[in-house]
């Protein structure tokens, strides 16, 4: 699919397709596992006090469905721009008998969000870098605070696509970073990384959050690592789906991309391949009403 956010309002660089739904389901599982849980930084007694949870940019609903299943007392809502992703998520909720999982279609770059003030105990956003323009982050985080109840939690997780021993991976990442800069999707100072991690605390602070904390993790998809196979599937699918974005903004050609992609699949299969993706979760509280 062509990358054309001026017409679709969708800035997501991997597009909207069945293949991307499969990729996002795998990605959700991979990050949840590498992060050691759905809400690993939240004590169980805090989760027990939650009732209403929102996940922004939920895709096919992987995190929402898992959270709703693990904690039946929660009412978990997922929001995404893609009607196809939301339709899939609703079918999965119905098939699993998850009456506490709900989904709605909306664009997180179009504010205000379709919820009244103080609707949720926890508002979550995982990996929305390269989903919205960099300039949209401050207003979105402020909106997350608006729809959170006093004393509730605003939680954002972002990643850098990591470092590897694959020359093709590094070249494709360079192309991605160039394309992200052209499309005004990166938050870095000089375009050498996506740059989301250093900003997360600042976004929460500037939106008025208190008690801001951080938790880092890493997804190891090296040869011999526990997540090697799932990481290989996730990342090779992601790079394949990235091609329309990279060629659409003019950082490479289809022929050059395909050559690099074939090299990538070989190098990631080598017995000495090493690769890590770095993840940072930052969360804070909406101040209690005075």
**CATH architecture tag:** 3-Layer(aba) Sandwich
Beta-strand proportion: 15-25%
State the order of secondary-structure elements, H for helix, E for strand. Answer: HHHEHEHEEHEHHEHHE
In CATH, the topology is named Rossmann fold
Helical run tally: 10
Count of the domains:
1
Number of strands: 7
Distance between the termini: 50 Å
CATH class: Alpha Beta
How does the major sheet shape up?
Answer: 7 strands, mixed
Q: Which class do the helix and strand fractions yield?
A: alpha/beta
Globular, elongated, flat, extended or rod-shaped: what is the shape?
globular
Characterization of the model:
The protein is 41% helix and 21% strand. The protein is α/β, with parallel strands linked by helices and 290 residues long. Strand 1, helix 4 and strand 2 (75-80) form a beta-alpha-beta unit. The radius of gyration is 19 Å and the shape is globular.
Helix and strand topology:
Layout: H1 5-8, H2 18-34, H3 44-49, E1 52-56, H4 62-70, E2 75-80, H5 83-95, E3 101-105, E4 120-126, H6 137-146, E5 148-164, H7 167-182, H8 197-206, E6 210-220, H9 228-248, H10 254-267, E7 275-285
Parallel strand pairs: 1-2, 1-4, 2-3, 4-5
Antiparallel strand pairs: 5-7, 6-7
Short structural description:
By secondary structure, the protein is of the alpha/beta class.
